[in-house]
Amino acid sequence: MKSIIEVRNYTKKYGDFTAVDDVSFSVKEGSIFAFLGPNGAGKSTTINTLVTMMEKTSGTLIIDGKDVSTEKDEVRKAIGVVFQTQTLDEKMTVTENLNMHCVFYGVPKNEVKDRIHFVLDLVDLLDWKDKSVSNLSGGMKRRVEIARALLHYPKVLFLDEPTSGLDPQTRNKMWEYITRLQKEKNITIFLTTHYMDEAEICDHVAIMDNGKIMVDDTPANLKRRYTKDKATVQVKNPALFEETLIKENFSFKKEKNIFHVVVDIDDIQQFLDLIQLFKNEVKDLEIKKGTLNDVFLEITGKEIREEASE
Amino acid sequence: MRTISALWLRNIRGFVRDRVKLVTSLVIPFFFLYVFSSIFKTDQVEDPTAFLLAGIIVATVFQTSLNIATSTIDDTVSGFMKEILVSPTSRFKVALGQILSAATIATAQGILILIIGFFTGLRFNNWETIIYVLFALMLVGLVFSGLGLFLASMVKSASTFQVVQQAVVLPFTFLSGAYIPIDFLPKVLKFVSYFNPMTYTTAFFRTIMLEKGGLPQGDLLKLGLAFDLNGFIITPWMSGGIIAIFGALFLYLATNSFVRADFNKISRNPLVRR
Ligand SMILES: Nc1ncnc2c1ncn2[C@@H]1O[C@H](COP(=O)(O)OP(=O)(O)OP(=O)(O)O)[C@@H](O)[C@H]1O
Ligand SMILES: [Mg+2]
User: Fold this and answer.
1) Domain for residue B270, yes or no?
2) pLDDT tens, A20-75?
3) Lowest-confidence range among A140-154, A286-300, B223-237?
4) Could you tell me the CA-to-CA distances from B12 to A204, A300, B9, B76, B267 in Å, in that order?
5) What is the average pLDDT value for chain A, to the nearest integer?
6) Which is the most buried residue in A202, B23, B140, B273, by most CB within 10 A?
């Protein structure tokens, strides 16, 4: 698969402050790519530069073969954007908002009605089409914005924190739309999020902190590389168990008579054999898979902010 | 064209839906008519009410045109401007759509006051006057919508703009002869008023609306429709030319600075964020 977004040595400074520092990455066509990072990491700054709303300080940013700084209109035609802050026309109805978007993007007049129907159906808002935007809830407004961004059939959809401030049901729904779009329309989706579980669903995750991309890989690879599965074992005869662990070269930590055994994913067979050996001894056993949160912790040395883990 | 007409329609709709704005903008002119009518009751003017009404129409069209700035800033603060600017539509067309809709709304306001004026006894001797008046209103609307958009694209913060707007509106209207004849002003202010484009706008519009175009220069001077600048007489028609020049300048500045404006910089009210 070819790359639809190419970013090389991108730097953005606000005055003296470097918000994004010499960042390079690429996004494969048709994939879901997530920027994961704490507040102020530089996620929105990167998105705003990619969508032509902000000038870079240096570097090269290419979308679908077009340069973001010099071929702005070409880039704008190819992308759909949902900003972090709301950009709806509150005084107008949902349909009027969508209509206006079709005008701005030059959607052929005879297709406007069908497309509006199509996108509103996608986000389950057909019943609300003649309501004023100001009467909609926050989640509905977000859905209208996503629907709107799809009207001109963009190749790449940028979503800056599409699910922040939404309740769990609405969040799930939102992800249903996003994954459906990717599968059915082969749209490339570039999004930012604070939520680990959301990043987990994506094809590719870049972890950003202090304006730098720390790592950039698939969630599975990241977890393989930076986390280990942990098993917590409780046995009747800790002394014997400990002895065996040392003999078999497991790394472990002992707490009272509960053993925390840290197991590498490659060694899962070896660990099972060990448990087999002690099968009449084991009182309790819990295996925890490594999460992106562990990856994040491992890489940045800090927990992503609290609300991310729910 | 589609962008311009769609934006135009949107702004008109927005204005019509905003009942409070609509009503206050119609009530205030009559408040002024009531307050200032005594000032014009001098012996030079035989129809003081019409004289003042013409001034009030110009002042209203001027102020309504400037509302373009407020609505453009509102669109920026609400985020809608971002939706426009991230689209491939041309900024120049967006600026034109904004200006044309503001000019339309302003002209419509002028016409409404004019209509009510007919009920209070305003009469034209020649029927063509109504056409000239309409054209003059549109010209005034366009000129000051241009100024309004120019101000809006220079603005750095939404709250300071409120102050800027007041600072522009008050001197522009009160030092123009619209409400108070400039002969009544202290010498310094009278001098300042000669640099005010609204002064010429008022004189030009009054001449047309009151059908005074044919009067000899002496009478025009006495009525404040022509100005004597150290012996150089500015006739009402020259005033028309002056407005047209200001208009071209404002429109150029407005579209130019709107196309370049960095709307990311306008500070947002934190409460508007989601
Ligand atoms: N217009 C601006 N002027 C100056 N500094 C800015 C500006 N916009 C952002 N910054 C700074 O740049 C850094 C990155 O901001 P950015 O909005 O890209 O972060 P983010 O990763 O999107 O954070 P969040 O998760 O809170 O949305 C922050 O430290 C922020 O204070
Ligand atoms: Mg952000």
Assistant:
1) no
2) 999 999 999 999 999 998 888 999 999 999 999 989 999 999 999 999 999 999 99
3) A286-300
4) 46, 52, 5, 18, 26
5) 87
6) B140
In this complex, is the C-beta atom of B10 within 8 Å of any C-beta atom belonging to chain A? yes
Closest Cα partner for A115 from A140, A91, A149?
A149
Distances (CA, A) of B52 to B35, B176, B185: 11, 12, 16
- For residue B265, the model assigns a pLDDT of 61
Mean pLDDT of A181-187: 85
Name the CATH superfamily housing domain A228-289.
ACT domain (3.30.70.260)
Average pLDDT for residues B100-124, to the nearest whole number? 88
Residue A282 has pLDDT above 90, yes or no: no
Is B19 part of a structural domain of the chain?
A: yes
- The helix (H) or strand (E) run that includes residue B55 is helix B48-78
Tokens describing residue B199: 């002064």
pLDDT of residue A132: 94
Residue of A nearest to B80 (CA): A87
What residue ranges do the domains of chain A occupy?
3-223, 228-289
Rounded distance between C-alpha atoms, residue B260 and residue B246, angstroms: 21
Structural domain boundaries, residue B217: 2-260
The reply to whether B80 touches chain A by the CB within 8 Å rule is: yes
Q: How many domains does chain B have?
A: 1
B79 touches A at CB < 8 Å: yes
Mean pLDDT of chain B: 85
Nearest to A77 among B75, B80, B88 (CB): B88
Q: Is A39's C-beta closer than 6 angstroms to any atom of ligand 1?
A: yes
CA distance B98 to B83: 15
Determine contact, residues A211/A19, Cβ cutoff 8 Å.
Answer: yes
Residue B168 one-letter amino acid: V
- Dig out the tokens for A127 from the structure: 């019943």
The two three-digit tokens of residue B76, written as one number: 């920026």
**CA-based R_g, chain B, Å:** 19
SS3 for A9? strand
**Calpha distance A184→A134 (Å, rounded):** 31
Distance in angstroms (rounded) separating the CA atoms of residues A308 and A159: 17
pLDDT of residue B45: 65
Ramachandran quadrant class, A200 (left: phi over 0; alpha: psi -120 to 50; beta: rest): alpha
Report residue A267's pLDDT band, with 50, 70 and 90 as the boundaries.
Answer: confident
Q: How far apart are CA B183 and CA B41, in angstroms?
A: 14
Check B10 against A87: CB less than 8 A apart.
no
What CATH class has A3-223? Answer: alpha beta
**3-state class percentages of chain A: helix first, strand second, coil last, to nearest 5:** 40, 30, 30
Give domain status of residue B113, yes or no.
Answer: yes
Model pLDDT for residues B180-217, shown as the tens digit of each residue: 888 888 889 988 999 999 999 999 999 999 888 888 88
Q: Separation of A46 CA from ligand 1 center, angstroms? A: 10
